[in-house]
Amino acid sequence: MAELATGETFPALLEINARLRGSRPAIREKDLGIWQTWTWRQVRDEVRVMASGLAALGLARGDKVVIIGDNRPQLYWAMVAAQALGAVPVPVYQDAAASEMQFVLDHAEARFAVVEDQEQVDKLLEIRPRCPRLEAIVYRDPRGLRHYTQPFLHSLAAIDAMGREHQKEHPEFYDEEAGKAKGSDAAIILYTSGTTGQPKGVVLSFDNIVKIARMSAELEGLSEKDETLSYLPMAWVGDNMFSLGQTYVTGFCINCPESSATVMQDLREIGPTYFFAPPPIFQNILTQVLIRIEDASWIKRRLFHYFMKVARRVGSDILTKKPVPVGQRFLYWLGNLLVFGPLKNTLGFSRMRLVYTAGEAIGPDIFNFFRSIGVPMKQLYGQTEATVFVTVQPNDQVRLDTVGVPCPGVELKLDQTGEVLYRSPGVFKEYYKNPQATAETKTADGWVHTGDAGILDRDGHLKIVDRAKDVGRLENGALFAPKYLENKLKFFPAIKEAVTFGADREFATAMISINLEAVGSWAEKRNLAYTSYSELAQKPEVYDLIKAAVEQVNRDIAQDKDLAGSQIKRFLLLHKELDADDGELTRTRKVRRRFVAEKYADIIAALYGGKDSVHVEAKVSFEDGRSGTLKADLKIADAAVSEAQAPRALAA
């Protein structure tokens, strides 16, 4: 493995990379269909100029700088430039509403903002009267901003020009300021998704990020020869680890897609060796694959389904180099030639040697699909407060039902209630301006309460059951783990989101949002006409489709002795998708259970009240900022439950 950079801070690591591998590519961006590349030496020069320009604008040690936009080289540079001056970057989700941004800006006491384009500028202008500390806004893309004359607005080009002048007048300034940083200093503030209340600002130090990045790079053998696609939100801790921490430690190249709409195309063009995606991304990819297969000719469908049966039998064993009968190995080779190889190439997965998924539990069927076709996917478990890594699956111990063993340097234990606790070099410094929450989460001796209920098996593997606060029991005492049920439902391409209920109730129920693309394609093949999402969701044929999926889930969980009693007896299809703009999901697409339970209280009551339908009127937010009201009568359907059976062994 190539030499790892050994600096304590990102500005220090940048200087080391510019010296060790100055001519190697550090970052690429696709712009107008063309990939632009910057070497490590060029990145170092860009960061120096930007830092000097921000200093000339007034950015000082201890200031907070919000960063808002898609994954862009200039925004990554702005983070390191701010750190070089002793300021603290605060990334914000680019799709956040103005009101959500207002909370973060106000709470973080941000004086400066570096944003991508007019859309983000407009949001900040809307809330600026309520954020009096915000003094300057710097934008990267000038399109649409020609006639914006506010004196506190500055283009990044103007900041760079100021920076070059500042460097001429103060040639030693950057090195002196960057040299003051220590590993224990605050490097970034990342706000949690806020599933149960207002987000909390997690303060991570340079030591947290750099030490965990170095540990994980050594663990997985990452080097300057690897490449990854930087497409996940910059406000998410995973992107800061994979697109900043690990790349600055190893020197590998990150690639920024042209837009969120071109991610899959850009993924195919780059063909990265290292990839991370949360389960919903893999679920969407699988949905697209299954839709395309259904649209293919009959012979292609037959080939796909035949060889997928072979892959499910032996694919994972071949991936981990376990013995496989010669005949089965030949069939898998033939399947790889005709099906798996072309499929991986189409997806951009051909060169991948390390694939992580985390963020929430992944359905075993989704996980097994990718591993069976030769994608080296494995699970890790982590949190923002841990700087991502708590556990990870060793390459030779990948299991469907666990998230692996503690990473090097991480201690793990369960308390008497089954809650998972950990201690590691990645443990966050504090919640910004919230000592009470810090004390509730982190003990005096460094143990962090995760809020997740887990089980440690005899081999030391961790199995996450659900969020501790969400796990409950039915009236009959059966265990109820809502996320587990929801993930089983979401394996089916027709189901985009599901929310289950059952704690302290007689039986389990589910509210389901259909996947418009998948179900729309299915309906088109059957000549089912519809004019809206709501109309499609309420068609009897669609209910039959989803009922079959629910009953299959019931048959699956009937084989789990702990969960067999929590099979879903009643369900309904919602008239709309659950949406972050409507407050139902976080920006990382996690369900806000408390909010959903309150908003849909009438629906939940109807599910348990023996009714066969319920009338709803819901306010929704449209993409253009308008709001409206949807009215619908939702059908409630019953689902058959299965007798509990002896559990099947899970495939490795």
Count the beta strands: 28
CATH superfamily of the largest domain: ANL, N-terminal domain
Distance between the termini: 29 Å
Name of the CATH architecture of the largest domain:
3-Layer(aba) Sandwich
Q: Domains counted in the coordinates: how many?
A: 3
Weakly predicted, low-confidence segments: 646-652
Helix residue percentage:
25-40%
The radius of gyration is 25 Å
Residue-averaged pLDDT: 91
CATH topology of the largest domain: Rossmann fold
Computed structural class? alpha/beta
Binned strand content: 15-25%
CATH C-level category of the largest domain? Alpha Beta
What overall form do the CA principal axes indicate? globular
The largest sheet is: 5 strands, parallel
Strand order of the largest sheet: 4-3-5-6-7
- The number of helical elements comes to 21
Architecture blueprint of SSEs:
Blueprint: H1 10-20, E1 25-31, E2 34-39, H2 40-57, E3 64-68, H3 73-84, E4 88-92, H4 98-108, E5 112-115, H5 118-127, E6 136-139, E7 153-155, H6 156-169, H7 173-178, E8 186-191, E9 201-205, H8 206-220, E10 227-229, H9 237-250, E11 253-256, H10 263-270, E12 274-276, H11 279-295, H12 298-319, H13 326-347, E13 354-357, H14 364-372, E14 377-381, E15 391-392, E16 405-406, E17 411-414, E18 419-423, E19 430-431, H15 435-441, E20 448-456, E21 462-467, E22 472-473, E23 479-480, H16 482-490, E24 495-501, E25 508-514, H17 516-525, H18 533-537, H19 540-557, E26 568-573, H20 593-599, H21 601-608, E27 613-621, E28 627-638
Parallel strand pairs: 1-11, 3-4, 3-5, 5-6, 6-7, 10-11, 12-13, 13-14, 25-26
Antiparallel strand pairs: 1-2, 8-9, 9-19, 14-15, 15-16, 17-18, 18-20, 20-21, 22-23, 24-25, 26-28, 27-28
Helix pairs in contact: 1-2, 1-9, 2-3, 2-6, 4-5, 8-9, 12-13, 12-14
